Amino acid sequence: MTSESDCRWTEASPDYRARLQQFACAAPLGGFALNAVRKHNQYYAEYEYEVQSTIRDMRSWDRKSQWVDICVSREKKERIWSFVWFGIVGGTKKDSMGTYMVGYIARSLDAKGCHFGDSTLKHALSVMESNQKETGRDPVIGVRIDPDNKNSMALFERNGFSDTGRDPEAEAYHRLVRFGFDES
Questions:
Q1: In this predicted model, what pLDDT tens digit does every residue of 116-129 receive, in sequence order?
Q2: Burial (0-12, 13-18, 19+ Cβ within 10 Å), 182
Q3: What's the mean pLDDT when you consider all of the chain?
Q4: Residue 89 is inside which H or E element, if any?
Q5: In what order do the strands lie in the sheet with 7-11?
Q6: Is the pLDDT of residue 89 over 50?
């Protein structure tokens, strides 16, 4: 992978199901750790394994209010570089109700250091911005993040999200919010 022109964004259609089942974004910790999940004789950070499991189990989603996009290589045998599941809570893509939310975002372990987290988040923000211009929905974007996930916290904060503290609806997570789509 040498540049963004080496890949393209597409919906995670059933054509990609087998490749999504193999998608790896959770790195083994190399041994026991507190709050780790043990799978296949390896330990993983719980928040990483949750994302990987969700991606691998992805079969369907509410297309009226959600997007599930993947970034794939332009090679003959496309590789999935990153994944993002985002949408609208309390509304649809066609109305002005609800709030934008990023559900899951991940980059392949093979893409570590390639800044796919930033480009994946910017892709999602671009899609939401286009939708916001069509619908007039308030330009508010939220996300829940496990505060132990330092990489994800940093990703969203450097892209204009503010940590508002513990999420009252899911105490194990922090709620981060961004107002507007202007570059951060």
A1: 899 999 999 999 99
A2: exposed
A3: 93
A4: strand 80-89
A5: 7-11, 66-73, 80-89, 99-107, 140-145, 170-179, 162-167
A6: yes
